[in-house]
Amino acid sequence: MRVSEYALGTARFGAPGGDDDARAVFEAFVEAGGTAFATSNVYQDGRAEALLGDLMGRDRDDYVVVTKYSGENPNARTPRPGTTGNGRKTMMRSLEASLRRLNTDYVDVFMPHFPDQITPAEEIMAGFEDLVRSGKIRYGGFSNFPAWRIAGAAARADLLGMPRPICIETEYSLAERSADRELLPMAEAYGLGVLLYSPLAGGLLTGKYRRGETGRLSAAGRAVEKDSQQTAVIDEVLAIADETGQTAAGVALEWLRYRAALASTALIPILGPRIVEHLSEYLRPVDLDIRHYQRLDKASALRMGAPHDDVSGALLNGYDGDRSLIDPPAVPPI
């Protein structure tokens, strides 16, 4: 499936008083060549999907729509177990509601938003198969799931001749590279595309919090820069932005484009601008050289932990034993 280099996130679509801004952002994104949209049944209590459907209109087939299920209105006072989770009942019910809001008869990718720690992968994959065969979805995927569960689902689909998942969605940025441990290598091994949300880490990488501005992180009431490494990353991003005459957001997103160019599968950042001016800033070309990328790599490098560090150490120290112990197979074992 062909998608644009970026996807547009719609979490703010349908927010009170924001329809005009959302419409302007949608139109500017499409004008720039954007075709992919990431949404969810819980964004603005379903209003995000409804507005997206209205904006796509009769051009629906020109676009790729990724939507998610699992939860209901996050502001609901009383949880309703029968309407949440990853199981077949919630999957089918949520998809039908999403299709009505989106004013379409299919979505391109459908995925559980979060694992519920109860529903087995077999049930989710069987549901995907039914929906693919019915024509209501084109592909299934997984959002915020651990790598071992996704790998098991992909392997099971291959064994049983079921439609395999096409992509995953996870947080990834210079400030949050945990996916480097398992998720991204797994996605490359199985040929899964990766949607990357929070590519600017909730505005952290724009430097706005250091300018005294507010945003999602400050509204949450927690430390904005949670550790010394994040502080070092922001220092480096701002330094490179100053040296090159670019914006901090442009530098952070350009590093993601560089990271995507090195990957053997598609890495698609999800942009979430509130206004057109932000989108224009994010899409503006940025010219960095290899030294800038290396500085950003170094500042944001993740301590991989066991067994990754052990394998790297063995390679660096000239391990000369059975290389099958440290060389991964070309195709993951089932």
General description of the model:
The chain has 334 residues and is α/β, with parallel strands linked by helices. Strands 1-2-3-4-5-6-7-8 form an 8-stranded parallel β-barrel, surrounded by 4 helices. The chain has one domain (7-325): NADP-dependent oxidoreductase domain (TIM Barrel). The mean pLDDT is 91. It contains 12 helices and 8 strands. Helix 4 links the parallel strand 4 (107-112) and strand 5 (137-143).
Count of distinct structural domains: 1
Shape: globular
- The main sheet orders its strands as 1-2-3-4-5-6-7-8
- The CATH homologous superfamily is termed NADP-dependent oxidoreductase domain
The DSSP helix count reads 12
Number of strands: 8
How would you briefly describe this protein structure?
It comes from Mycolicibacterium smegmatis (strain MKD8) (Mycobacterium smegmatis). The protein is of the alpha/beta class and 334 residues long. The protein is built from twelve helices and eight strands.
SSE map:
Layout: E1 7-9, H1 19-31, E2 36-38, H2 47-56, E3 64-69, H3 88-102, E4 107-112, H4 121-134, E5 137-143, H5 147-160, E6 167-171, H6 183-190, E7 193-197, H7 216-219, H8 228-244, H9 248-262, E8 267-271, H10 276-283, H11 290-300, H12 308-316
Parallel strand pairs: 1-2, 1-8, 2-3, 3-4, 4-5, 5-6, 6-7, 7-8
Biased composition (Polar residues): 70-87
GO molecular function: oxidoreductase activity
Pfam families: Aldo_ket_red
